[in-house]
Amino acid sequence: MSYHIRIHDRQKDKVYEADIEGDRYILDSLEDQGINLPFSCLNGACTACAMRVKAGKIDQHEVIGLSKSLQDEGYALICSSYANSDLDLETQDEDEVYRLQFGNFFAKRKRRWFQFAIPIDHD
Description:
123 residues; alpha+beta; Ubiquitin-like (UB roll); five-stranded mixed beta sheet; 3 helices; 7 strands
């Protein structure tokens, strides 16, 4: 089944529109039509392709890098998600979504990142 998708790219202040098939990953379908959006892992594990679902339904059963609670709040990783209806999406700041996903966990830890730094010897 084919669905119409509208994406507001906040970083570039552009709006993209396309028709995509529901049996293909959203990101793949968009790239095939020349719409290039941020991505990294292509496995639904990082937050580089994060979007906010403003309207519509997405199947995210393959996504592993986004909690159910964030999915319920309307976040989606489009590299591993399928359209289940027409969609209105908005790009998100990867760092913000990463903080929402992992920040609370890391903030509870007693170790700080700088404790793991390894000095580089230039000899």
